[in-house]
Specification:
- The complex is a heterodimer of chains A (403) and B (266).
- By secondary structure, chain A is an alpha/beta fold.
- Chain A has 16 helices and 14 strands.
- In chain A, helix 9 packs across helix 10 and helix 13 packs across helix 14.
- The N and C termini of chain A lie far apart (53 Å).
- Chain B is an alpha/beta fold and 266 residues long.
- A 9-stranded parallel β-sheet of chain B has the order 5-4-3-2-1-9-8-7-6.
- In chain B, strand 7, helix 9 and strand 8 form a beta-alpha-beta unit.
- The longest helix of chain B has 16 residues.
- Chain B is globular and about 45 Å long.
- In chain B, 56% of the residues are buried.
- Classes of the chains: A alpha/beta (403), B alpha/beta (266).
- At the A-B interface, helix 1, helix 8 and strand 11 of A face helix 5 and strand 6 of B.
- The complex binds pyridoxal-5'-phosphate (PLP).
Chain lengths: 403, 266
Amino acid sequence: MRYVPRLMQPPEPASGRYGPYGGRYVAETLMPALDELTQAYQESQRDPAFQAELDVLLHQYAGRETPTYFASRLSEEIGCRIWLKREDLCHTGAHKVNNTLGQILLAKRMGKTRIIAETGAGQHGVATATACALMGLPCEVYMGAEDVRRQAPNVRRMELLGAQVHSVTSGSSTLKDAMNEALRDWVTNVRTTHYCVGSVAGPHPYPVIVRDFQAVIGQEARAQMLEQAGKLPDAVVACVGGGSNAMGIFAGFIDDESVRLIGVEAAGEGIETGHHAAPLCAGGVGVLHGAKSYVLQTADGQIVEAHSISAGLDYPGVGPEHAWLKDTGRATYGSVTDDAALDAFQQLCRTEGIIPALETSHAFAYLPTVAKALGPDADILVCLSGRGDKDLETVLEKLEERG
Amino acid sequence: MGRIADAFENARKENRAALVIYLCAGDPNLSTTADLVVAAAEAGADVIELGVPFSDPTADGPAIQRAAERALRGGTTLCGVLETVRAIRARTDVPILLFGYYNPILAYGEHKLADDAADSGADGFLVVNLPPEESAGLREPAVGKGLDFVPLVAPTSNSERIAQAAAAATSFIYYVSMTGVTGSKAVDLASASERAGALQRELGCPIAIGFGVKTKDDVATVAPHVDGVVVGSAVVRTIEDAATPEEAVASVRELVAGLTQGLNRQ
Ligand SMILES: Cc1ncc(COP(=O)(O)O)c(C=O)c1O
């Protein structure tokens, strides 16, 4: 059975509460489906055959375990020891596949005949389309029109994988609106359809399910650090959009009190400009997409559009467990701007020969801050959540603008 | 008994279903909303569901999404909606159910909202994304102020959830006719009405059917079976199609008058 960190069990698993956060704020039509999903998930967790099937897929198909790599040239530039958990080496190029293999396997077990998903950067869409192709299920992906434009290669990939991509033009035409549209589809087709949520957001049980499927990142990384560094890291750093790669790597270390957990949000054009995607750093408590958490909103409770160069972080909400980790102080959260992320993107290319996703680049851009706080003897583990091939066009465009 | 329960009771005495009309507050603007409510009431609406616009209306189809966008662009807030209810109260006694999503309510403050809504003359709340499990924070102060709290039952609700809704209901239960968003085409309104009718007899609590009811004929399909029928997207579209606010008021008056023709049970 998969290791579930003690501190991370919601106090009341039935309600999916993390302190005041989480819960199920959805239309009545969806409530029975969430009950059904919770039950099926719990049964699958107790079923060794399910776990064995998933383990084989993660190993033989997705390429786990992924390495933890000591980045010596980057370490020199940053001024402490930097270790990279290489989720970019997963099949499809990001951590997202850990979750989709688990969820699509679960959907099959539940007898669902159709899969829907939302996607921002397209990585979750690609990972869902991939798992659906593998398991022979039809897949439809909702993606904001703005993201369809800036993540064009991933749209082509999803289509090649047999998925149908719906371009969403309501609201800000980004991830939030894609999720709205996916929820509207689900409320219509809930009897036959599984909604494969891509992050630790959404109504209970999604934050639990996605965290558990991503926890493999942290479990592997903990063992690898002990073996390769001979110690636990002093800090674990990950970017936070909805928060799944961060939750996944945090999961391995949550009970290790000496390990600082640090999430990095997108500050976009700067927190002070209001054009950002940093609800934990600069938002307030609200309810979006079925859960109570931190959100970007007006004083009247209208959700505000997020802004980030990175499509996967361009979301005004965040998973409820992060809200709880923030309030309890177990994790801390910082933010970095589009510009800083671009610089970090180039730095990793240049020093290590690794092209990171723009989402991931946010974690790297925060390393100097962490290094300054912890000093040169610190070991910092970074979740390299995905690779950046999908972002080349955006990056080259921006670099040209900068001159 | 509150105004909403009275309205259902009166309709029952007249051997007809009660007509519930949805309007999105602030579309096209709040002063026209007041005129629209008055016109709908004069034309025969028994209850008004006054939508409080939200930026991310995940249970709504395109028509009501667009209405909410227009209302928000015009600066509509929950505060403004309550002021409008107060203004309407000087003109008509039609029961007004505030209808919306949870986040603007949470931002306003649940206790404060219950106080202010009661004070403005509103009659209750229906919150689309606040199932019984999450609703105590609003329901308790609301009921304490004599306001109604209207639960929803969906085609997917099992008997346990239906019982929970019935226990929470203070005036009526809103029965969603189909799995879907507002404004969708009803797949089979007749059999949904029969199921809802059986449920109403079993629970002994008035039920209103909404989603997919657009025309006088739809109303006539529903009316024999349950005590209430809700028309929303059709009203919102009529407002959208009007060239001026005056035309919107006149068209809604005409639409509602037509819908009342389908309410009679014999
Ligand atoms: C590579 C990569 N990292 C991170 C994210 C952000 O999501 P999360 O915060 O759920 O890990 C995405 C989302 O698209 C992504 O593609």
